[in-house]
Amino acid sequence: DGGITQSPKYLFRKEGQNVTLSCEQNLNHDAMYWYRQDPGQGLRLIYYSQIVNDFQKGDIAEGYSVSREKKESFPLTVTSAQKNPTAFYLCASSMAGTEETQYFGPGTRLLVL
Amino acid sequence: EDKVVQSPLSLVVHEGDTVTLNCSYEVTNFRSLLWYKQEKKAPTFLFMLTSSGIEKKSGRLSSILDKKELFSILNITATQTGDSAVYLCAVEVLSGTYKYIFGTGTRLKVLA
After folding, report:
1. b or e along B14-35 (b: 16 or more beta carbons within 10 Å of the residue's beta carbon)?
2. How far does the CA of residue A97 sit from the closest CA of chain B (Å)?
3. Do B104 and A41 touch (CB under 8 A)?
4. How far apart are CA A68 and CA A55, in angstroms?
5. pLDDT (0 to 100) of residue A97
6. A28 — alpha (psi -120 to 50), left (phi > 0) or beta?
7. Is B40 on the interface with A (CB under 8 A)?
8. Is the CB of A39 inside 8 Å of chain B's CB atoms?
9. Measured between CB atoms, which of A50, A103, A107 is closest to B98?
10. What CA–CA distance (Å, rounded) separates B5 from B72?
């Protein structure tokens, strides 16, 4: 089946710990995105990438880092510098520069212990 | 600064009612406007609008874009409890590269 997968479904982070959220797609999409959603809020863009080995900061990149070594994969690391990481994280992908829409993964809920 | 504003923030209706959700935007380099439905997890795609005045329709849902006045509406007729969700509007912009700007969403609750 084609689609976007995210893992884990739930993730617990201790104070001062870095954690990495996985996002993989087999849709052959060029562009991938990470969003954060807080309760009752819309989606805010953290990072996005249009091609391999290149990515741009979104509106709330501080305390996060990404890599794009492969077209299929766009992992997000929540670093210890992110002081309020509890949120629902959504990964998405799209075919850049076309009229195709953006498709979302199932999300990862991150909780701080 | 690019922004997308949705209204109302929340709405409670009874089954059978018709609802209209609004999305206005101020962006540079508009490419498209998208509507999503979010129930518990990932948003699911409803419509993409790129041309002004053309209505997109799927069953009881329809949407139209006004590029002159910079807004879109999502209409749901004969609402059902299964329509209860958060409806998200997003605008795709070209800002060096392509990206999407989301509104805060409208939370719709349909009562039986």
Report:
1. eeeeebebebbbebeebbbbbb
2. 7
3. yes
4. 7
5. 62
6. left
7. no
8. no
9. A50
10. 11
- Tokens matching residue B50: 């790129």
The answer to whether the beta carbons of residues A50 and A96 sit under 8 Å apart is: yes
- A28-63, pLDDT tens digit by residue? 999 999 999 998 788 999 999 989 999 999 989 999
For A16, residues 6+ apart whose C-beta sits below 8 A from its C-beta are: A80
**Low-confidence stretches of chain B (pLDDT beneath 70):** none
Identify residue A64 by its one-letter amino acid code.
Y
DSSP annotation string for A28-54: --SEEEEEEE-TT--EEEEEEEEETTE
Q: How many CB atoms lie within 10 A of CB B81?
A: 11
Amino acid occupying residue A112:
V
